[in-house]
Design goal:
mainly alpha
Length: about 425
């Protein structure tokens, strides 16, 4: 009993110390200028993405990237992990790259990564390349073909238009080859739909059945208050943000420009996504943490992709100021990216939510999977002159209410 008491007291002290430290850190971040915050976002995205793009641009990704797996890994994951790293990273980095180059230090940095990304696209889709990606074997490649397609849709001026004719042909062949993979009756349907949306945008002969079925099923799976089921059932996890809302938004965004019939669907989905983004903003605690609920927690702050996307699109609800979203994301990303063990000694991401926690990875998780965290950086697609980046620090919802300030009453939506 004495040992139990000592252990309980020690655990309590450790928890209290961690919370106190986190709160103190959050308070310190309030003083950072908007300029410093953007510099942090840029440097963090580059830190995450540099090892992947540097290696892939030289056809060395399969040689250099480590493949960490969880204790319950389904298999070696070497057949799928490289496309995961590439597709997911590019999807999150795309809006920043789409800003293009200029003579500022950041613009010159973008020039470097635009070049690396274009070379990486060539190598990933060239059948004669050492780093040619697997788009057909196993089921997983459909997922990451979709993230790759999403990246192209998010940055067509930088990631598609400058490509030579042969590379464009290879990209379309790679995307179409993923059609042999049948998606599960879940959010996976949107992966098939996303691939077809890119084919509509950049080529022809899309598979209308794979596209329309994905969208129609998700209409049936809407549960209310901005939330979809993952299939017919509700799952308390972050997949509405990892996949369901962002991919529907990007798919409908393509379709509405091709067919007026989709404009109403786009408007409906955007309204639902805005509500879910408002919920996400309220989930971020005063010290920049959030509930570790559901699967795929190893995607870290990628769980807040939708909040970042809605801010990027300048569609935040009126009660959510852009600066409070920036401040909340800053505290959250700062917590996690600086946790000991987030990166290995060579700069590659390691499995975990806060630092290195290998056991948190499901059987499908490996090193490449982790690069979905880049989706939190979509807001870098807003130029530094935008109010999102230029307005002064603003406390987010939980920061306000737990310090005694008033906040708007929250209301559900149909």
């Amino acid at each position: 009993m004495n040992n139990y008491f000592k252990s309980t007291v020690l655990s309590g002290l450790i928890y209290f110390t961690a919370i106190t430290t986190s709160q103190a850190q959050s308070k310190k971040l309030e003083k950072d200028s908007p300029k410093k915050v953007r510099e942090f976002f840029v440097s963090s995205l580059v830190k995450i993405g540099d090892p992947v793009l540097e290696a892939l641009s030289k056809n060395e990704l399969k040689v250099k990237m480590p493949v960490e797996r969880s204790p319950g890994a389904w298999d070696a994951r070497t057949n799928v992990t490289y496309l995961e790293a590439f597709g997911r990273l590019l999807s999150g980095m795309a809006p920043w790259l789409e800003l293009g180059t200029d003579e500022t230090p950041e613009g010159k940095l973008r020039a470097k990564y635009i070049d690396l990304a274009q070379k990486s696209i060539h190598n990933a889709t060239d059948p004669n390349s050492l780093d040619f990606m697997n788009f057909v074997n196993d089921k997983q490649p459909l997922v990451d073909a979709a993230f790759f397609a999403q990246a192209l849709l998010r940055a067509p001026k930088q990631l598609w238009e400058p490509l030579d004719a042969i590379t464009k042909e290879n990209v379309i062949k790679a995307l179409k080859s993923s059609r042999k993979i049948e998606p599960y009756q879940s959010n996976w349907l949107l992966f098939a739909g996303m691939v077809e949306a890119a084919i509509i945008k950049f080529d022809k002969d899309e598979d209308q059945k794979r596209l329309s079925y994905a969208l129609e099923q998700h209409k049936k799976w809407y549960l209310g208050d901005g939330t979809y089921g993952d299939g017919p059932d509700f799952h308390w996890d972050y997949y509405n943000s990892f996949v369901i809302h962002p991919m529907q938004l990007d798919i409908y965004n393509v379709l509405k420009d091709k067919n007026n019939d989709y404009k109403t669907d786009f408007t409906t989905e955007l309204k639902r996504a805005r509500r879910y983004a408002a919920i996400q903003e309220r989930l971020i605690s005063p010290d920049g943490t959030y509930p570790p609920i559901g699967r795929s927690l190893a995607y870290r702050f990628g769980a807040f992709q939708l909040l970042s996307q809605i801010a990027l699109w300048k569609e935040l609800p009126k009660e959510v100021a852009p600066a409070q979203v920036r401040s909340a994301l800053y505290a959250m990303i700062h917590n996690q990216i600086n946790a000991k063990g987030t990166f290995d000694k060579n700069g590659w991401l390691q499995v975990g939510l806060y630092g290195h926690q290998n056991n948190i990875g499901e059987g499908y998780i490996s090193t490449g999977s982790l690069y979905l965290c880049s989706e939190a950086f979509l807001v870098l697609g807003l130029p530094e002159t935008d109010s999102f980046w230029s307005d002064a620090y603003k406390p987010w919802t939980q920061k306000k209410i737990w310090s005694g300030q008033e906040i708007p009453i929250d209301h559900a939506e149909k």
